[in-house]
Amino acid sequence: MQLLGLFHDTSNTSASTTLSIHSRAMFKAAVLLSQTYNIKIGGQFIGWQTAQTDDNVISALRSTCFAMSTSNIIGIVGPALSREAILIADFAETVGIPVISYAATDPDLSDRNAYPVFHRTVPSDKVAAIAIAQLFIRFNWTSCTIIYQNDKYGLSGGQALNETLSNNSVIVLQTVLFDTMTLSIQGDLNSTLITSSTRIVILWAESYYASLILQYALNYDVLGPKFTWILSSNVPLNSFNQSFSQNLIGILTVEPTVGDVVNEPINTTL
Question: Is-contact 109 89, C-beta < 8 A?
Fold first, then answer.
């Protein structure tokens, strides 16, 4: 009996992402601990195997089908991306096994009627949108620009943001689309931001794409101190040319954190 772990690496990069590396390590550690604690299913220890996904939902499905056909898979951990998780959750329902994602945040996946076998260990985009709205209330900000990537993650997140901000009397003056296929921003980012009456920018994009968008913003000089940017994913700021360090000051990131940061209990074994 095995658990299948699905872990994501961006298709057009050669190096594994930090999330992918850490998630794989935690997955393997958890399975090994289950064996140490003599946890069995049907009298058998739980084993594991992993597969990589690469932004292609069919590739994720192919890896899952291959594992199911060659091993006794009793559950799936992953995938990381919402667009992959939606397809895998539908497939898992047909074969009767659970799916637990460590990173998929699409609010639609919370629908127990539509996705009865899907579970996750991270909050949905609606929770992140509420946290961002609370920032606006705290600092009396009344308007913003939203930049988002043109896929399921970006569209669902953008919708959750628009609804939540609107419910809190925050006006979204304009939205800017980032094309994940061409890796480019649709329209003129410089003129869009400079001519806008708001100086608050929400960037709703995965870490890899967010880094590219921030580089565009650095090139156009539309980061700090002229603008305040709020990110939905963590971006290592030391990856940029350090001559721009002053422009990166003041960037805010809203993302899930471990429980002990807010004095909540955590699993200290792992």
Answer: yes
Determine the structural domain holding residue 88 and report its residue range. Answer: 2-120
Predicted confidence band of residue 16 (pLDDT cuts 50, 70, 90): low
Q: How far apart are CA 217 and CA 213, in angstroms?
A: 6
Does residue 132 share a domain with residue 111? no
Q: Are residues 197 and 243 in the same domain?
A: yes
Q: What one-character DSSP code corresponds to residue 244?
A: G
Q: What is the 3-state secondary structure (H, E, C) of 186-223?
A: CCCHHHHHHCCCCCEEEEECCHHHHHHHHHHHHHHCCC
For residues 29 and 135, membership in a common domain is answered with no
The predicted structure's pLDDT at residue 96: 96
**Quick one: how far is CA 205 from the chain centroid?**
8
**Distance of alpha carbon 138 from alpha carbon 6, whole angstroms:** 39
Same domain, 113 and 135: no
Residue 233 to residue 128: CA distance in whole angstroms: 10
